[in-house]
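Q: Here's a chain of 622 amino acids. Please give me its 3D structure as tokens.
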Amino acid sequence: MTSYLQIENLTKSVGDRILFSDVTFGINQGDKIGLIAKNGTGKTTLLRIIAGVESPDNGTVTFRSGLRTGYVEQTPVFNPDATVLEACMHPDTPSAITVSEYESAILSGDQERINRAMQDMDAAGAWDFDDRLRQLLTRLHITDLNARMGTLSGGQQKRVAIARTILENPDMLILDEPTNHLDIDVIEWLEGYLSHQNITLLMVTHDRYFLDRVCNKIIEIDMQQAFAYNGNYDYYLRRRAERIEALNAELAKVKNTLRREQEWMRRQPQARAGKARYRIDAFYDLKERSKANYTESNIELSHIKSSYIGSKIFEAEHINKRFGDKVILNDFSYTFARRERLGIIGANGVGKSTFIRMLQGLEPADSGQWNVGETVRFGYYSQQGIQFDNNKKVIDAVSEIADYIMLDDKHRYTPMQFLQHFLFSPADQQKYIHTLSGGERARLHLAVTLMRRPNFLILDEPTNDLDIITLGILESYLESYSGCLIVISHDRFFLDNIVDHLFVMEGDGNIKDFPGNYSEYRTWDSERRKLENKDSEASRQTDRKSKPRQEKPRRMTFKERREFEELSAEIDVLTKEKKELNALFASGETIDDIAEKSRRYTELNEELDEKEMRWLELSELE
């Protein structure tokens, strides 16, 4: 088994907080590793250290010599004025350098340089780079290669970053939250690609289906240490529970032993005189070990109750909405019922977020009417989050909203008490908001959303910044939630656990109401597509029999275009040599090696005929 990477005694702190300490693990060829940890414990920092973007406080990261790695950041940064094609052909990437040198060599006409460039193109597999680029971007739903990066959404920029990295054919991929902001069908394509490719992978993701189907190893950062599990996510859950149980059993033994030793230590000093010093040292070691706490510190949501909601929720009557030529809703009508649990899915840009903003009155309809019940109290967790003042402390931001929080009809909490249920310790509550991590901001957003006890909860992509453990707690809370619920999410596991029917937004204002969760919809849709493909194939076969076949004009591929340019240069060189020989034969001078020159003249004619014929074939594809 070939070792690709070895991490030894890695330590990193942020201020006075230790993220991880003396972390040691290795990555071998073929490993597909999911990195799991709670928010704020250093997952992204660890990836950035491995990728060489950040430096550790202590420890080493050693790569195998010559190993090619690709790194996709959680939020990739591009030149906003660059086109998609220019972003993928970044001048610092190996493929771009190879293609650029080949193009320069062709323009120079230097045959020796052209030969070297051709060898480099062969070694890099760059002849079909353009074709692979277009195919990959199409699969990732990026079709306009001339679009400026500054005009693309965050999800589109993430897809371009993934395409650029995959195209380089790295030996090892490092991915930070690759599924964030991606459409579900793109996630499923990426899942299948990474599962079947012979590539080594290290990634952070909260998508539990993705982890389960792609990874063969899980590394967890917990208690500032790294724990490795040789299996997928489901295996990790079982083994982790066993590890925590064993640690708690060991802690119980330590505490029992400590009680006996405390009795010995309490005796009069004279009674201990002459006793072995090692026993006294062992007592203090036991005392220190007994302070360990393996109990999970998790968000507490079970005590938060929704407020009363009446029998009338709301009705949508003949709603229409469009932006220019883009139709969001077309004569949409629906009556929402109590305890309704709805999931909304659809491609990015189809109007999912616009739909729920209209429902709350945050976006006007072009026509139609929303009739909302008097008791409905919305709670909205949005992709953009709440716009807090970054220069305020956490406790001050919450105190400004309410002096106290009623989580049910009997219990009243101060903002400080309430925030502790969301893992904000008194010290954390004094942090300025601009210093919070993405996960901490998400927790604060969730806290502010739930503190008003909404009876109609709307969650727009709640899984993007919440860690897996918090997601599990949120799922448990939503299972017993007594109000209405709408969820927009690309997390298939989350949808399967929470919703009982789906709105599938198909575009052009069309919404399909599917009675089931996401996996049930995916199975139904797959069967439907198979039937459509069979019908389509039967129709095509009928058309072939009844109509003469018409070939679609084919365009020149990247490799053929390079061949065409190379042929042009070679034909120019051969034509020049032929003219020189013609001039020599017509001069009347004595030619010493006339036989050799005559043979060469014949070869030139044959080469020119062959190359000009191929040049003509390719020119018809232009």
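Q: Can you summarize the key feature?
A: The chain has a mean pLDDT of 84.
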